[in-house]
Design the sequence.
């Protein structure tokens, strides 16, 4: 089996799995087994792409070429492969977790839920392996549409309102800005292929480059740059596995991934560094990462707090990309991986708490740590990783980002990063701390009774928490892949 | 002299039109429209377009006026006075369009000029060669039926479409045939007594009209006329009968159910001539290949297609008249 | 045989029409009509293959050489339009039988098919002819049959819509007749080829200038260019179910073809656009049309009317593409003509299938139809996505070219406006899809079943074609691009 | 011979023209419908008729002469029948001659009422406006 | 010049009068009357352009050398047929409109249409608020 077939399979396997499971809607067990098998299969497919990519190849396949110079094509390069690995790996866990959550909550329309889930992952694979900007755009939109039913899963007026905001902002930004910028790029460069060192270099002046990059950054609504971040908290109406998918696995990561891709393969960091095209975006991102953290502090709803935390953390990636140097890029890429691992842990925890106790407000969670020790231990680990403290994976990302901004002599950003880390501590640590160190509201519940969420919920979150720790120690092997990325970001 | 007559007729046309614009009583408006058509037929006559004049007289002043009257019998004869806001926009649009036309007219070849390009590019071949290529001395017939026979097929298609459309909308013969609203017997008798003159006159006229139609049909090669005019004249003979004796007796003579086949038959007849010529190795509607001698072939071809036109047109006009007037019963 | 194909193309349906009118049995009539239209599709494909490499087929009606006789001329452009008319027309006619069942008596049904066939044949006639006056004749056949078809709608407003269309259409046709008369007055010929050769000598002649003006206004009425689109929304809304699909697919598109043929071939780009500056009128009008019609579409609560307004907007896209006057723009116009015909026909057909079951096209009656009629709604969604212009669908290709065309001109704000209009398309299509999938079905429609297969299959063929032509664009954008090259290369 | 024909035809033409003019004057000056109809019928019969006869004498060939005679024949029949039909239907519709005496008018009004023919408007003359309402079709 | 263009000018006046009737009249049948006049005027335009001074009807006769243009005659023959076909269909629709609305005045029809559209809209609003 050639590598290009594998690429195609990475798209088709989840699709086929999704279709297959709709046929099994009457027997939930068979359906869930299919989900799980598909997820594992996909992960294996993605892994089997590694040898080729690590050896420097870029397997690719052209699906169709409707317009001359503009094709639908797939290719595997390090950044995309990393994203694909994260997404497909976490999908297995999310599926497991989703089964536990959905069953534990007796949700309706489970088949539709898993079907859309599968489509979303297929779209995420498409984004990861997109060979050009247009293909990426297609899968980007596909992801938006496929997750819309997930967001509105509950079907009540609240969910519909949230869904409308979600769809409205994402569609508006992507069609209004992203597509426009894409068209403009095509018009300027005559191609949209992702090429090492970028394609725009000879075609734009500083002004145009800045406008274009800004359009791209705001057009990628999934990256949740302020002021287009509103959809993220709004999408919190969704069931927690969905939130995990949105905030850790697929959607937001797709957003920042897109920006990274564009920075590296459309503009090339040389161009950005030379022209200062990233200035606006960089400052907006810096603003976002500070302000979002402050807003997160004010939120009592756990999921809302996590959502704003995500908004802030995403901006790290954007800042890293806009620094336009090797350390920044490496930091940004690492941030994608590390934040995914950390944030999914946190969401899994939030969901587990909801399943076990039906509590959503942080102030209600006092003393819960004794009832759910694994969950809250995992939450604590995840929090540390997000904050960026060793010995957890997140620290590598923060480290490289700091290095990058120092290298770029952006002292304000250095300061902002530090301030933001402090704020992270301020809004994340209290959650776990409350659970462990404060007495529960109602004294009648014995603090020592362990009443965890269903096993299917708890196991995944333990795995991801452990993953965060492991990423710290095995960061080096990750580095091997990631260090390939900046090589492609400059003109060959 | 010609110019004088022509101008006079044109001025009369203008007067007629302005009368129509100002009239509120539709009945008179429609009558004047018939008059307008008749006048234009005269103008066509003066301008040497005998075939057109013939057609306009038969159609504009004849059949279509009757259609109008039949429709008016249903929808009422007066129109409300139009409101003032309605006049401004049309007036502006009309003035702009008219100004454009007048602007264009300054570059038009003068009326009657010999060297206008219209007469000197395509037409000379028709005038010089058609007797040897096609045959009929009436060049209009040879152009209509042979050089531009394809257009004429389309024209038959238009008539056929109108028939199908009216049929689809109003139905013909299938709806109420044989169920005339019973008038009080004395009224019926009275009406017959009043019509005695008309009846006698129409008895006298209908047969000549039908024969004349046949004459026009077959004489179209040599003089003005042809399938279309013949069909309309034939139809007006039948319509005359229906007007005097009532629709039901007319439908007994021409049962709508059967009559509904004829437009299609005529149309098919026309098209099949073309198909036969294709089968004999020529192009569509190339009559030259129909028989051994091209000129004879043209002759036969034109005769048959004119017959097809005649059948279609006659049947369509009668059918439409039946459809429209049946609704008023 | 092969050299007779252009005549056969027309004759198949033209001969079938009178025979069809004589059949008493509606089912037989349907069989005849479908057989004729599908055969004519086959012929259209054969013709397309023949002209694929840039060849031109010329056929002399009656064996008379042009300009004395009437010539039929098929090049790449009208071969594409032929395929459009025949293929999509056939698909709609195939679905028509079920749609008419129970609505119309048998005898009437065969008349209905006859009208359809006449319209079909006339559209083919318009497309293949190379004679200016012949265009007028067949235009009238198609228009008359269209009026009759529209007037058969169930609502009484169908009658007024049809009448309004009749008045406007006849004025338009008469304007075109005046234009043709003026052309003849100055050049003495009616053959398009001949006209285009003889016209350049008369560019300063006011008669020709007026002729262009009359032609443009007349054909704009037929194409429904904003603000002469007045007749279209009502006509589409109140026409019978599946008929709307046919009209949306073919009638306006063929008129647009006539517009292209005359403006680019007969009058010529240099005269129409450079000397007379037609673009300065067409561009603002079409932009206004796109924005206003899209905006109006958003606020409709009847799905059919919504799609009708969308048609006005989409037609403006095509006109805009033409008026841009560069390779991308013309490619966009021609390929969008094809793509939009396909998608709109499919959308209206899917909608017809829904109306067939729920007897209404009001949005609140379509609530929850995604669950009761999943397959139909699925097809609708696919084509709706295509209409928006999402990549991998046909709509994307043409919109892409259109926006490229505006960017080539350096009109960035216009490109932005086009994207805004795409957003509006998202909103109005999204409105229907949202209602269909995410609203509970009203109780009286709870037991609605899936549409019959004979409607469902054509719907899905349209949907699959929408995707196919989004991926393989050799036939649409490829041909259109070559046509655009030939127009721009000459001048 | 030809001289004599010319003179006869001249006389006929002049007479025809004279009748045309008188008919025109009559149309303008006559007081009511019936008298005007009378004037119009003069136009048809004497005016046009005599002119056609005059032209017949000028005809270049027998074919043309015969055609003109046919025309004369049909003109006579149709024109007069048309005037008759017009007057008849106006009479039926209840319009009375101004010149008739009043008693007769009353008598007619009492007896006749209104009568309609099959195709209503087609043969009727200019009826009173209210008549149109009764001529309407009876709907679907 | 006046003699040369007089015909055209009169024809233009006629055409515009016909067009005016179509556009300004509220009565559907009268609109069709206007359409007829408009079209007939166009016919006269065509025939005028085909006239050659001193020519005769284009029926070949050995004694005659100058004929008027037969092509315009052919075109107009076709156009007349088209005209009457349109008229017939238009009248048929008008008759149906009369049966459906009981009037053929455009203003009244528009008012009735607006009325029913309004009713539909309120009905759908009601359906919306039910949910």
Sequence:
């Amino acid at each position: 089996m050639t590598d290009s077939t594998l690429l195609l399979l990475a798209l088709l396997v989840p699709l086929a799995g999704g279709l297959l499971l709709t046929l099994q809607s009457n027997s939930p067990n068979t359906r869930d087994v299919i989900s799980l098998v598909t997820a594992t299969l996909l992960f294996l497919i993605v892994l089997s792409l590694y040898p080729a990519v690590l050896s420097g190849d870029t397997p690719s396949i052209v699906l169709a070429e409707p317009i001359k110079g503009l094709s639908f094509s797939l290719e595997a390069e390090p950044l995309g492969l990393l994203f694909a690995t994260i997404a497909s790996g976490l999908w297995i866990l999310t599926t497991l977790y989703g089964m536990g959550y959905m069953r534990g909550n007796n949700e309706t329309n489970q088949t539709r839920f898993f079907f859309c889930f599968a489509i979303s992952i297929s779209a995420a694979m498409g984004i990861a392996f997109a060979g050009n900007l247009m293909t990426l755009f297609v899968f980007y939109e596909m992801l938006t549409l496929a997750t819309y039913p997930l967001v509105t899963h509950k079907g009540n007026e609240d969910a519909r309102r949230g869904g409308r905001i979600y769809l409205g902002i994402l569609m508006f930004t992507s069609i209004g800005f992203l597509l426009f910028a894409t068209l403009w790029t095509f018009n300027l460069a005559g191609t949209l292929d992702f090429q090492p060192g970028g394609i725009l270099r000879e075609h734009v002046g500083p002004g145009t480059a800045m406008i274009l990059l800004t359009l791209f950054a705001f057009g990628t609504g999934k990256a949740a740059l302020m002021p287009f971040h509103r959809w993220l908290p709004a999408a919190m109406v969704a069931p927690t596995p969905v939130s995990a998918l949105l905030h850790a696995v697929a959607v937001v990561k797709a957003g920042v991934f897109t920006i990274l891709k564009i920075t590296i393969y459309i503009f090339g960091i040389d161009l950005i560094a030379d022209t200062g095209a990233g200035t606006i975006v960089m400052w907006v991102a810096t603003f976002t990462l500070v302000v979002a953290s402050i807003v997160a502090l004010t939120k009592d709803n756990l999921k809302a707090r996590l959502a704003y935390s995500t908004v802030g953390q995403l901006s790290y990636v954007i800042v890293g990309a806009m620094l336009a140097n090797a350390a920044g890029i490496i930091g940004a890429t690492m941030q994608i991986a590390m934040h995914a691992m950390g944030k999914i842990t946190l969401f899994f925890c939030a969901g587990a708490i909801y399943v076990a106790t039906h509590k959503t407000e942080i102030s209600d969670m006092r003393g819960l740590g004794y009832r759910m020790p694994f969950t809250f231990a995992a939450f604590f680990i995840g929090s540390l990783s997000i904050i960026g403290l060793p010995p957890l994976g997140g620290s590598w990302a923060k480290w490289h980002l700091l290095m990058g901004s120092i290298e770029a002599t952006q002292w304000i950003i250095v300061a902002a990063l530090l301030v933001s880390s402090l704020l992270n501590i301020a809004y994340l640590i209290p959650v776990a701390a409350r659970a462990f160190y404060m007495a529960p509201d109602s004294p009648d519940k014995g603090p020592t009774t362990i009443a965890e969420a269903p096993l299917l919920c708890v196991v995944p979150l333990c795995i991801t928490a452990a993953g965060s720790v492991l990423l710290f120690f095995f960061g080096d092997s990750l580095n091997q892949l990631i260090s390939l990325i900046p090589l492609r970001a400059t003109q060959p | 002299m010609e110019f004088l007559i022509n101008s006079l007729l044109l001025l009369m046309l203008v007067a007629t039109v302005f009368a129509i614009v100002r009239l509120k009583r539709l009945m008179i408006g429609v009558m004047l429209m018939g008059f307008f058509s008749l006048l234009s037929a005269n103008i066509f006559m003066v301008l040497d377009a005998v075939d057109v004049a013939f057609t306009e007289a038969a159609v504009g002043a004849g059949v279509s006026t009757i259609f109008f009257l039949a429709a008016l019998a249903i929808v009422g004869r007066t129109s409300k006075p139009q409101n003032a806001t309605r006049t401004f926009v049309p007036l502006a649009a009309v003035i702009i369009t008219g100004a454009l036309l007048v602007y264009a007219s300054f570059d038009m070849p003068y009326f009657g000029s010999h060297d206008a390009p219209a007469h000197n590019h395509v037409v000379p071949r028709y005038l010089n060669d058609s007797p040897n290529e096609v045959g009929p001395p009436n060049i209009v017939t040879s152009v209509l039926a042979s050089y531009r026979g394809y257009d004429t097929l389309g024209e038959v298609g238009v008539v056929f479409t109108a028939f199908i459309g009216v049929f689809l909308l109003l139905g013909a013969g299938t709806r109420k045939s044989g169920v005339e609203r019973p008038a009080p017997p004395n009224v019926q008798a009275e009406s017959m007594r009043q019509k005695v003159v008309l009846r006698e006159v129409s008895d006298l006229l209908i047969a000549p009209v039908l024969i004349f139609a046949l004459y026009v049909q077959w004489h179209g090669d040599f003089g003005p006329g042809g399938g279309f005019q013949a069909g309309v004249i034939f139809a007006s003979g039948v319509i005359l009968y229906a007007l005097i004796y009532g629709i039901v007796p007319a439908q007994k003579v021409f049962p709508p159910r059967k009559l509904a086949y004829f437009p299609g038959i005529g149309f098919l007849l026309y098209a099949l001539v073309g198909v036969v010529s294709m089968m004999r190795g020529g192009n569509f509607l190339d009559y030259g290949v129909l028989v051994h001698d091209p000129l004879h072939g043209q002759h036969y071809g034109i005769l048959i297609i004119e017959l097809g036109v005649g059948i279609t047109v006659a049947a369509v006009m009668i059918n439409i008249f039946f459809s429209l007037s049946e609704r008023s019963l | 045989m092969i050299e007779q194909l252009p005549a056969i193309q027309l004759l198949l349906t033209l001969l079938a029409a009178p025979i069809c009118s004589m059949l008493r049995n509606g089912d037989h009539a349907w069989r005849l009509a479908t057989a004729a239209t599908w055969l004519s599709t086959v012929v259209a494909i054969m013709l397309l293959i023949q002209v694929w490499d840039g060849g031109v087929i010329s056929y002399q009606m009656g064996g008379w050489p042009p300009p004395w006789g009437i010539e039929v001329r098929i090049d790449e452009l009208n071969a594409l339009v032929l395929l459009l008319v025949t293929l999509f027309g056939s698909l709609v006619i195939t679905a028509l039988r079920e749609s008419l069942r129970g609505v119309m008596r048998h005898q009437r049904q065969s008349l209905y098919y006859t009208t359809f066939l006449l319209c079909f044949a006339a559209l083919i006639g318009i497309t293949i002819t190379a004679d200016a006056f012949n265009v007028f004749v067949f235009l009238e056949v198609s228009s008359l049959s269209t009026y009759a078809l529209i007037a058969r709608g169930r609502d009484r407003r169908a009658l007024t819509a049809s009448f309004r269309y009749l008045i406007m259409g006849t004025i338009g046709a008469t304007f075109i007749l005046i234009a043709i008369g003026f052309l003849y007055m100055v050049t003495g010929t009616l053959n398009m080829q001949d006209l285009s050769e003889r016209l350049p000598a008369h560019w300063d002649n006011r008669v020709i200038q007026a002729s262009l003006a009359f032609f443009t206004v007349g054909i704009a009425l037929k194409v429904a260019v904003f603000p002469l689109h007045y007749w279209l929304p009502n006509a589409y809304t109140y026409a019978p179910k599946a008929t709307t699909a046919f009209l949306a697919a073919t009638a306006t598109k063929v008129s647009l073809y006539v517009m292209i043929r005359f403006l680019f071939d007969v009058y010529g780009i240099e005269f129409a656009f450079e000397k007379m500056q037609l673009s300065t009128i067409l561009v603002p009008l079409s932009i206004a049309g796109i924005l206003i019609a899209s905006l109006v579409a958003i606020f409709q609560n009847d799905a059919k009317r919504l799609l009708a307004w969308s048609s006005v907007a989409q037609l403006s896209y095509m006109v805009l593409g033409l008026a841009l006057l560069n390779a991308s723009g013309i490619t966009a116009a021609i390929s969008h003509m094809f793509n939009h015909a396909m998608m709109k026909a499919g959308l209206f057909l899917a909608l017809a299938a829904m109306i067939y079951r729920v007897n209404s096209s009001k949005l609140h009656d379509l609530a929850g139809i995604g669950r009761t009629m999943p397959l139909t709604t699925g097809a609708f969604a696919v084509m709706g996505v295509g209409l928006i212009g999402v990549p991998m669908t046909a709509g994307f290709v043409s919109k892409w070219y259109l926006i490229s065309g505006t960017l080539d001109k350096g009109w960035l704000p216009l490109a932005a406006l086009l994207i805004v209009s795409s957003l509006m398309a998202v909103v109005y299509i999204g409105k229907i899809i949202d209602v269909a999938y995410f609203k509970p079905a009203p109780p009286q429609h709870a037991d609605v079943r899936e549409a019959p297969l004979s409607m469902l299959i054509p719907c899905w063929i349209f949907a699959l074609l929408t995707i196919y032509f989004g991926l393989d664009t050799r036939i649409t954008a490829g041909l259109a691009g070559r046509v655009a090259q030939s127009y721009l290369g000459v001048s | 011979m030809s001289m004599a024909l010319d003179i006869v035809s001249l006389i006929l033409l002049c007479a025809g023209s004279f009748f045309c003019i008188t008919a025109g004057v009559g149309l303008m000056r006559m007081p009511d419908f019936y008298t005007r109809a009378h004037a119009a019928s003069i136009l048809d019969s004497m005016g046009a008729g005599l002119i056609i006869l005059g032209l017949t004498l000028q005809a270049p060939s027998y074919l043309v002469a015969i055609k003109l005679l046919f025309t004369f024949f049909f003109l006579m029949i149709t024109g007069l029948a048309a005037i008759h039909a017009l007057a008849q239907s106006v009479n039926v519709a209840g319009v009375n001659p101004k010149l008739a005496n009043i008693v007769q008018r009353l008598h007619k009004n009492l007896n006749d009422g209104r009568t309609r023919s099959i195709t209503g408007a087609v043969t009727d003359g200019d009826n009173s406006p209210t008549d149109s309402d009764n001529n309407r079709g009876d709907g679907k | 010049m006046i003699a040369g263009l007089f015909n055209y000018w009169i024809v233009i006046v006629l055409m515009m009068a016909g067009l005016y009737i179509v556009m300004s009249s509220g009565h559907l049948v009268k609109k069709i009357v206007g359409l007829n006049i408009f079209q007939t005027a166009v016919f006269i335009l065509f025939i005028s352009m085909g006239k050659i001074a001193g020519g005769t009807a284009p029926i070949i006769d050995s004694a005659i050398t100058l004929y008027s243009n037969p092509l315009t005659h052919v075109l107009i023959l076709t156009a007349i047929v088209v005209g009457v076909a349109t008229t017939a269909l238009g009248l048929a629709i008008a008759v149906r409109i009369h049966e459906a609305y009981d009037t053929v005045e455009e203003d009244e029809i528009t008012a009735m249409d607006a009325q029913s559209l309004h009713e539909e809209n309120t009905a759908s609003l009601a359906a919306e608020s039910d949910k």
Notes: The mean pLDDT of chain B is 85. Chain B touches chain E through 103 residues (CB under 8 Å). Residues 1-112 of chain B form a domain with the Four Helix Bundle (Hemerythrin (Met), subunit A) fold (CATH 1.20.120.1200). The two ends of chain B are 50 Å apart (CA to CA).
